[in-house]
């Protein structure tokens, strides 16, 4: 796999779990700034995740990888997008159980995709 793809994948791999932790912290503290942190982390993960998804779709269409990887990336990106819309609601109800579940889905999907990409698609192999 191309090193630029691995670099782009690092951003959503870090940002989606960080958004999940910010959501958990907000639900435990009711400090509004944590919801804002989660919204911005989610937005950053969507930007880079969209680039990774596009790259994965093109690579899978060209037969360079299995379709499992871009499907996981699509699940990650769609759940993150719905979560971004959910976070844009009124301040106090911006997270809730729905936001937390969407954050969990995004974080788990990107971690599995990152593991799959690193272990089976050659990101971890030395040239």
TrEMBL record:
List the Pfam families.
DUF2231
Among InterPro entries, the record links this protein to: DUF2231_TM
Query: Can you give the residue ranges of the DUF2231 domain?
Result: 2-118
Organism field? Novosphingobium silvae
Q: Which domain of life is it from?
A: Bacteria
**Which keywords does this chain's UniProt record carry?**
Membrane, Transmembrane, Transmembrane helix
| Name the record gives this protein | DUF2231 domain-containing protein
Q: Which residues cross the membrane?
A: 37-58, 67-85, 97-118
């Amino acid at each position: 796999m191309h090193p630029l793809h691995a670099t782009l994948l690092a951003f959503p791999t870090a940002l989606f779990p960080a958004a999940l932790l910010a959501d958990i912290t907000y639900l435990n503290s009711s400090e509004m700034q944590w919801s804002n942190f989660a919204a911005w982390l989610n937005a950053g993960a969507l930007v880079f995740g969209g680039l990774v998804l596009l790259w994965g779709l093109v690579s899978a269409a060209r037969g360079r990888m299995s379709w499992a990887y871009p499907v996981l990336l699509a699940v990650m990106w769609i759940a993150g997008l719905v979560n971004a819309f959910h976070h844009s609601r009124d301040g106090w109800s911006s997270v809730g159980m729905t936001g937390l579940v969407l954050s969990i889905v995004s974080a788990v999907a990107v971690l599995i995709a990152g593991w799959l990409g690193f272990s089976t698609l050659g990101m971890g192999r030395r040239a």
